Amino acid sequence: MEIKDLVRQNILNLKPYTSARDIYDGDKGILLDANENSCGSTFTSIENLHLNRYPDPHQKDLRQLIENVLSIPHENLFFGVGSDEIIDLLIRVFCNPGKDKVLIPEPTYGMYKVACDINDIETSEVLLDDNFQIDYKVIRASYTKNTKIIFLCSPNNPTGNLLIKQDVLQLCKEFNSIIIIDEAYIDFAIGGSFINEIKNYPNLIILRTFSKAWGLAGIRLGYCAANEEIINLLFKVKAPYNINSLTRYALEISLRNSELKEKYIKSIIKERERLKNLLESLPDIANVFSSEANFILVKFNDSTGCNTKAKAVLTKLAERGIIVRDRSTQPKLENCLRISIGNEEENDLLWDTIKKII
Ligand SMILES: *Cc1c(COP(=O)(O)O)cnc(C)c1O
Residue 286's domain spans which residues? Predict the structure, then answer.
């Protein structure tokens, strides 16, 4: 398996943007190379953030911060403006518009297809099996030599399950393509991460985000872990200063609060199981799927087969100011709503309201 055989020719030939600070030691000296404001910044705070200066395009201290936390070497890490930016960059690195294909086992997160559509990349949406696991037969049947990327999500959004390790590793071995595993919800799962497999599989990419367990959706920060060759390609195509200094600063503060993150995770898991048990006791609910994430997928009983029940519950909840996500039009998810786990008070209110509606 040669990564460079998968890359778009124009990306291989691309000469990336360089700044004067790549040539000279960028952090020190009198910086008169980038037309910044040398007097200072209008944003004043106790912290000396140097917001008048461009951030480090090489993400050096960000990568070091995460290397310290995860023991993944910094050479194997890349940061994006949310994982959504990384999804887009990976498609642009590997897929030729109008020619290459991306395989997406569904039901799953909608952004993979949106990002492909924006880039004019054809997608094959195949189905996961009845347990929302990889179905080898359908993947083999849809795979072509132009399939550059397979998107997987574990724990999967919106079904909440982890993917079976052997299935994923078999895909990495068998297919001469990039295998992306989105681990946005991995902090809520017990084990199950593929991140340590990046040293064994050069085509494996793990996506992570600070938007969920870390409670930092507002700062827009995600990262991926992969072999160094892929990381270097991402650095080649990203906007030079994609991660802004306020975001970097927020991360630094948050990493010092990792006990708080652990506390949130514990409470969300506890609430998730409490809500699951409560909802399962209702006669109109056919199934509350086991979840390793911070949401649950709920399937309603419905004899009409037209998603009427799910839609009715969705509307009535909304009338009472409770917004949940309709997933009933996704394949295999007839009559399903996805409910994020709120805090204890919010969950009590949800429970009271659903009980009354049903
Ligand atoms: C929420 C979510 C993300 C996070 O995206 P960001 O751009 O990092 O906020 C990524 N993948 C999945 C499956 C998600 O549900």
Answer: 259-357
Q: Is the same domain home to 108 and 91?
A: yes
Please check whether residues 36 and 145 belong to one and the same domain: yes
Q: Are residues 12 and 48 in the same domain?
A: yes
Indicate if 185 and 235 belong to the same structural domain. yes
**Are 94 and 26 in a shared domain?**
yes
Ligand 1 neighbour 251 (Cβ under 6 A): no
Helices H, strands E: what count in the chain?
Answer: 13, 11
What would the pLDDT profile of 232-290 be if each residue is shown by its tens digit? Answer: 999 999 999 999 999 999 999 999 999 999 999 999 999 999 999 999 999 999 999 99
Segment (H or E) for 229:
helix 228-237
DSSP annotation of 190: S
Give the span between the Cα atoms of 302 and 284, in whole angstroms: 8
Q: Is the CB of 88 under 6 A from ligand 1?
A: no
- d(CA 83, ligand 1 centre) in Å: 6
Q: 62 with 86, same domain? A: yes
Distance spanning both ends of the chain, measured CA to CA:
54
How far apart are the C-alpha atoms of 354 and 352, rounded to whole Å? 6
CA of 186 to the centre of ligand 1 (A): 11
Quick one: which atom of ligand 1 is closest to the CA of 212? Answer: 1
Tens of pLDDT, residues 298-312: 999 987 778 788 999
Q: Residues 309, 231: one domain?
A: no
Question: Looking at ligand 1, which atom is closest to the CA of residue 220?
Answer: 9
Q: Is 201's C-beta closer than 6 angstroms to any atom of ligand 1?
A: no
State whether the beta carbon of 100 lies less than 6 angstroms from ligand 1. no
User: Is residue 177 in contact with ligand 1, taking CB distance under 6 Å?
Assistant: no
